[in-house]
Q: What sequence folds into this?
């Protein structure tokens, strides 16, 4: 059993699914390897209240006396020409007009499971409902986690006392280290904390009052990319990939990877269809998991959904942090049909060799270390149009463009903006990019 471990999105999805199936907290806890009290706390802390599912005949009334109520003309200003009971009124709610109104609360919400997930009466029940939603719970958890680790742990009185003590000394030219050493009985914070308070502007003393601090160049923080789901490889490793392909030998495999330019700048998500050697790319502003998810959401939105599921049935990628949220890619469709994401073994780029080999043609046009910040999606489409119009020995002299068009038609290539380049016009040199920007500049000059 996991102790002192935070729940991840996969755990929350399991909880939501098990609640829908009507399982007990103890059974749910065994599925996610946590204590049942953790499950109980998780559900109660992340409830979503829903008010828009009432049947029309009881839209305005949740009173416990609804069935037996015989009241008429409770409102002094009632203008109804009908002599109906007040509980049937569609103008004024009983909660605002009747002194005897008492809202009825479902017993299911006051004890386990505390939510309406899995209840058969959800659609016809007029009472207020509460649901547990895994994605909303994860977002709420992330916000809480971020808030708990931000700000400063000091009261206003303590801050004022600290300011009155150290700000005059700093303005006299004393260093933070000198002040903390000689006033240790009054200062209970480390030198690093005091520097943080000054840099945040919480004290009267400013960084300019500390000449050595101003003169020094700030240290560059190493960017550390964290995985969205640390358990993303479970059930998706390379052995699982082989097992799936053994059961589904006709599945199309799409290998994906990231091509980076200058560190921290724009990058490209490359998608390679192994048997056809066909590869195209999507420009991304940042190398993070969100941009990868957005790329697949874009493809799903512009493509025929049946063709999308055919081409992206199996996705094989490496262990980069940008690919650490497979659940987002696998949950694009609510109909149960979804891509299957698998991972190569660490440091085994040869396990998706087709994608890596096709990168060599791309690198003939865009060498490593190239700053891709000025690049546009139009330029990326042009580069891959030339790459896919390059004849391959493995395709008996045909091009990936021709092979892909023969199997899946011209329409999908037009959607991806990949066009045919005549054999003698194919360019696999950096001046293809220079030529593009030159033409763009001439177009802008013509406009102006």
A:
């Amino acid at each position: 059993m996991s102790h002192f471990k935070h729940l991840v999105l996969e755990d929350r999805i399991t909880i939501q699914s098990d609640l829908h199936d009507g399982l007990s907290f103890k059974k749910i806890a065994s599925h996610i390897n946590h204590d049942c009290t953790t499950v109980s706390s998780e559900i109660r802390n992340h409830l979503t209240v829903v008010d828009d599912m009432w049947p029309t005949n009881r839209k305005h009334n949740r009173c416990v006396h609804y069935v037996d109520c015989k009241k008429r003309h409770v409102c002094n200003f009632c203008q109804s020409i009908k002599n109906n009971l007040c509980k049937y009124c569609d103008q004024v709610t009983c909660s605002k007009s009747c002194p005897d109104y008492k809202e009825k609360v479902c017993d299911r919400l006051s004890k386990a499971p505390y939510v309406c997930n899995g209840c058969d009466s959800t659609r016809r029940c007029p009472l207020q409902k509460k649901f547990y939603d895994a994605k909303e719970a994860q977002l709420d958890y992330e916000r809480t986690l971020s808030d708990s680790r931000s700000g400063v742990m000091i009261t206003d009185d303590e801050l004022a006392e600290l300011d009155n003590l150290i700000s005059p000394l700093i303005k006299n030219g004393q260093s933070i280290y000198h002040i903390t050493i000689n006033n240790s009985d009054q200062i209970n914070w480390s030198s690093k904390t005091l520097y943080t308070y000054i840099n945040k502007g919480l004290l009267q003393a400013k960084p300019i009052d500390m000449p050595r601090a101003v003169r020094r160049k700030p240290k560059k923080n190493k960017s550390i990319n964290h995985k969205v789901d640390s358990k993303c490889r479970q059930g998706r490793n390379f052995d699982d990939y082989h097992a799936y392909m053994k059961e589904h030998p006709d599945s199309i495999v799409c290998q994906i990877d990231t091509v980076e330019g200058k560190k921290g700048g724009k990058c490209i998500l490359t998608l390679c269809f192994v048997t056809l050697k066909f590869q195209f790319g999507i420009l991304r502003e940042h190398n993070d998991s969100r941009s990868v998810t957005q790329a697949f959401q874009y493809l799903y939105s512009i493509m025929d959904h049946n063709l999308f599921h055919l081409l992206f049935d199996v996705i094989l990628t490496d262990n980069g942090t940008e690919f650490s949220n497979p659940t987002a890619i696998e949950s694009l469709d609510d109909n149960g049909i979804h891509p299957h994401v698998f991972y190569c073994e660490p440091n085994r780029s040869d396990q998706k060799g087709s994608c890596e080999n096709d990168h060599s043609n791309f690198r003939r046009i865009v060498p490593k270390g190239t700053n891709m910040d000025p690049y546009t999606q139009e330029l990326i489409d042009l580069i891959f149009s030339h790459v896919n119009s390059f004849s391959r020995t493995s395709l008996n002299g045909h091009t990936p463009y021709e092979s892909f068009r023969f199997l899946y038609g011209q329409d999908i290539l037009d959607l991806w903006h990949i066009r045919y380049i005549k054999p003698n016009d194919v360019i696999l040199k950096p001046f293809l990019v220079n030529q593009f920007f030159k033409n763009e500049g001439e177009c802008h000059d013509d406009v102006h």
Notes: Residues 157-215 form one domain. The two ends are 68 Å apart (CA to CA). The chain has three domains: 9-148, 157-215, 238-447. Confidence is low (pLDDT under 50) at residues 444-448.
